[in-house]
Amino acid sequence: GPSVVKVANSALFDSANSEDLSRGSMSGTATTWTASFWVYRGDNGQRASTDAKFMFTTASDAGLAFANNSASNVLAWYGGSYTATTAVFRDLGWYHIVVKNVAGTGKVYVNGVSVLSDLTVPTADATMAIGSYNNSSSYLDGYMAEWVFIDGTALEPTSFAGFDSTGTYWTPLANETIKELTFGTNGFYLDNTTNAETDASGN
């Protein structure tokens, strides 16, 4: 289920207004990379919908979504066809999601736990869309926060989050800790402290 932790700063994505973010051309991105972010879905009926709602696409035809056009509340990687979790994520709350890609083979984690593996991940060769499928459809409704893209390195979820001092709740690492990561050529960090689009990585 979701973490009960609150994430300090986030960006609202309204599917009714076709809202998303674009990274620009990702050409030249290494075949190994890591994406980390927190997501909180809106409660507008989409939890019962089998229409895929994409959190991001990072290649011309690949990305991660809630639902897979046949099952609701699953997490599904799309790369021409869907690979979906057996676990369902129907509860509202913050989920920490990491996609780790090693030379074209991907793995997805939720709150530090592996939920998908052995995924085929194409080269990140196109504009990155955050909150939609290719900036054109399947828009997410809800919040996303702490968006980190690491170009050239495959990192574990503990590079971005970890259990609190009681060992109970999965929580984001400090802003300054994230800034110390090596982001690579096309890497970025959207910490949402000023607006949705400001890159805090130094890139």
Task: Write a structural description.
The structure is a single chain. With 203 residues, the chain is mainly β. Helices cover 2% and strands 37% of the residues. The chain contains one helix and 15 strands; from the N terminus they run E-E-E-E-E-E-E-E-E-E-E-E-E-E-H-E. The strands form three sheets. Strands 1, 3, 8, 9, 10, 12 and 15 form a seven-stranded antiparallel β-sheet that branches. Strands 2-11-4-5-6-7 form a six-stranded antiparallel β-sheet, with no helix packed on it. Strands 13-14 form a two-stranded antiparallel sheet. The protein starts with 10 loop residues before the first strand and ends in a 13-residue tail after the last strand. The mean pLDDT is 91.
Q: How much of the residues is beta strand, in percent? A: 35-45%
| Order of secondary-structure elements | EEEEEEEEEEEEEEHE
- Average pLDDT works out at 91
Number of E-type strands: 15
Helix and strand composition category: mainly beta
The helicity comes to: under 10%
The dominant shape is globular
What is the count of helical runs?
1
Instruction: Give the C-alpha Rg.
Output: 15 Å
For the termini, the CA-CA separation is: 34 Å
Low-confidence stretches: none
- Main β-sheet: number of strands, strand sense, barrel status? 7 strands, antiparallel
List its salient traits.
1 helix, single chain, 2% helix, seven-stranded antiparallel beta sheet
Topology:
Elements (H helix, E strand, L loop, with lengths): L10 E3 L7 E2 L10 E9 L11 E7 L2 E5 L8 E4 L3 E3 L10 E8 L2 E6 L2 E8 L8 E2 L11 E10 L9 E3 L6 E3 L2 H5 L8 E3 L13
Antiparallel strand pairs: 1-12, 2-11, 3-8, 3-12, 4-5, 4-11, 5-6, 6-7, 8-9, 9-10, 12-15, 13-14
